[in-house]
Amino acid sequence: MGIINIKNKKLYSSDIASRAILTRPPEPPAKLIVGDPKNSIYVGRTAVFNEPFHWTYENVTNPHIAVVGITGAGKSYFIKTFLTRASFVWDSNALIIDWAGEYREWVKQAGGKVLALGKGSYLNLLDLAGMRPLDRIKQISRSLEILTDISNYPEQKRLTEEAIESAYVNKGFKLSERNQKDALGNPLAPPTLKDVLKVLEEKLSSGTYEFPVELENAIYRIKKFTRKGEDFFAQQSTIHLNELVSSGLVDLDLSGLPDETMRALAALSILQFIKEKMRAAGWAKKKGIKLIVVLDEAWKIAKDENSDAVMIVREGRKYQFALLVASQNPTDISEAIFSNVGTTFILRVKFERFLDYLQNTLNFSDYMRSQIARLGVGQAAINMALQTSTAYPETFLLERIEGEEPVIEFFLDVEPNLVGEGEIVGKTLSFERDELRKKLRLFGLNDEKVEEITSTFDKMNRHMNVVDFVIMIERAGVDRSDITGFLKDLGVEDSVIINIFSEADYKKLGVHGETTEVELSE
Questions:
Q1: Please, are residues 383 and 394 in contact by the beta-carbon 8 Å criterion?
Q2: How many CB atoms lie within 10 A of CB 421?
Q3: How many Å apart are CA 401 and CA 242, to the nearest integer?
Q4: Structural contact between residues 343 and 65, judged by C-beta atoms closer than 8 angstroms
Q5: What are phi and psi of 55, to 5 degrees?
Q6: Cα angle, residue 298 at apex, residues 378 and 155 outer, rounded to 5°
Q7: Which band of pLDDT confidence, cut at 50, 70 and 90, is reported for residue 441?
Q8: Nearest CA to 193 among 217, 164, 230?
Q9: What is the DSSP code (8-state) at residue 306?
Q10: How many Å apart are CA 272 and CA 139, to the nearest integer?
Q11: What pLDDT shows up at residue 12?
């Protein structure tokens, strides 16, 4: 005969009311979250009823996903788990548009393919991917409007569009036709930006154009993408679309490109090519998800309302692929994405302005907001836009994302004397081990130093005093500006960071300092 243990717990009436469990269940019913393992992805168990949660595109309005959470909350861990399981369940291909090269090593270990722009690979901006030249010209123009100030100079925009048109015509293309071939039946080779530059320079040298300054500025804009060593988009492509969408797991590493604008231009172009290819194929429910495209920290193209990322999400199930947009800063993702994706995974979020943004966009309760602020590494709240309206909440809590391997947490202990009165930061900061490794590599440390630092954590039972941590990574060569950014991403207030650095300085001098709270001024 079993024994039932009943525990009494004191709850305030306001707490009970905020949960609304007596009038409305805190989770959707099992039939909406427990799926067929052969046609869904297991993510973890719900926090209240301990039901297994299986994600499937069939229950939600569309297959697109947003993932948000502070540094170390478990975003990359979730993404890797999701892609791995989708490949088993639906035989899905996956393309990671990898801003910082953070997924490169994992993709190699998983047997995937890494393609690196800026490191020997090229993407011709004027490739057509089956489009009419007229349609591709509009896409290129829209990309330049998003990433540059060309919209403020309508004459330069017109000159650039006309030059691109002429470059296609000079190569034998008809502007309003698709999939064009030469007299021998071979596909026509598209022009490049170098051909566009030549058209503009010939127009200038003719001396007949009445606004030469506008023409010179249009030339300068194109030249920035055609200079030797920076002509990543001005040569014939060595990266082919079929390699990206049908080769299993692919990491498109953009870390070799020189700046944010070039990385965003590459990402936008790839999205445009993929959208066109998938548009031609159409949506077929029985085929599942053919391709999952990951955009992680791609704020330049996830925020702009005219971006193809926003358009793809708004168009829902129109295409046979899912877009997964992830960021540690929710305000870097357009409200239109949150409002239109089928599912949002919210990991730990600490900053009030981020919580305000999410709550206003997704419309969850104050109780849910307080729970999100207290989530641990790998824990999550899930918002689902279900296909049919129900009396159940669309946002519910997940006890933990259960990946292929257990998530490994590291902890930084913050002494009480470092925390000013009224500060929200807790005495212990936690983050994912792999997130620390990624950050250290971004800060310029080599693999040997990264492993040395993570091994130190392991030897100390994964706990370290925050002051000792700062001293250790400073000695390894990490700048204080980078350390400040890392601590801020973990939710540490400016005044506490100043106190940490002051204590670190005292400790390096062999003096124990009395920390005082400091106000930062703009």
A1: yes
A2: 5
A3: 32
A4: yes
A5: -85, 135
A6: 165
A7: confident
A8: 164
A9: T
A10: 7
A11: 52
Name the amino acid, one letter, at 392: Y
State the Cα–Cα distance between residues 469 and 187, nearest whole angstrom.
58
The more confident residue out of 425 and 50 is 50
pLDDT tens profile 462-514: 899 999 999 999 999 999 999 998 888 887 888 889 989 998 998 888 765 54
**What was the pLDDT predicted at 394?**
85
Tokens encoding 119:
């490191």
Q: CA angle, corner 116, sides to 110 and 120, nearest 5?
A: 135
H/E element holding 239? none
Of 85, 168, 92, 93, nearest in space to 124 by CA: 168
Query: What string of DSSP letters covers 187-203?
Result: BPPP--HHHHHHHHHHH
Alpha-carbon span 445 to 451, nearest angstrom? 10
Closest alpha carbon to 67 in 294, 336, 373: 294
pLDDT per residue as tens digits for the range 162-179: 999 999 999 999 999 999
- The single residue listed with the structure tokens 């669309």 is 394
CB 125 within 8 A of CB 323: no
- The answer to whether 296 and 327 are in contact (CB under 8 A) is yes
CA 108 distance to own-chain centroid: 20
Look at strands 428-432 and 291-296 and give their pairing.
Answer: unpaired
pLDDT at 10: 56
Query: 396, 435, 418: which is closest to 492 by C-alpha?
Result: 418
Dmax of the chain from CA atoms?
Answer: 99
Helices (H) and strands (E) in the chain, counts: 20, 14
pLDDT reading at 260 higher than 50: yes
Helix (H) or strand (E) holding 46: strand 41-46
CA distance 324 to 96: 9
In this structure, what token pair is assigned to residue 362? 């997704």
Neighbours of 212 (CB within 10 A): 12
What's the per-residue H, E or C state across 289-328? CCEEEEEECCHHHHCCCCCHHHHHHHCHHHCCEEEEEEEC
Positive or negative, the Cα torsion across 181, 184, 186, 188? Answer: negative
Tokens 């427990």: give the residue: 34
